[in-house]
Amino acid sequence: MTEEPPGPDAPGHLVLGSEVLGAELGERATLVQFSTAFCQPCRATRRTLAEVAAMVPGVGHVEIDAEERLDLVRALGIARTPTVLVLDRAGRVVRRAAGQPRRVDVIAALGRAV
Fold first, then answer.
1. Which residues contact 29 (CB under 8 A, 6 or more apart)?
2. Engineered SS bond to 32: which of 22, 24, 85, 86, CB 3.0-4.6 Å?
3. Mean pLDDT of the chain
């Protein structure tokens, strides 16, 4: 999981609510994963994020098909899959990274959100 440079969703600038994501946010934080059907690392990322969300109370996991949500992909400047956004309880992006994450890195990133 490599951290990307700040984009249009730099911390404090963008809020992603349930109406934008099409899913409810977690009570404490939300892991948002942008994936594509042909992406092998996306499958492993899905498992990792689901495991972390199940381990940490109040954390939700939302997976978004990048091909179906090109509007959101463009608005957020998503350049590759998987890309993971960590949202705080209000839906503010507090961390953004591309590539397959390690569980320890996801847990550390959640520390900034909760």
1. 56, 58, 59, 60, 86, 87, 88, 89, 110, 113, 114
2. 85
3. 89
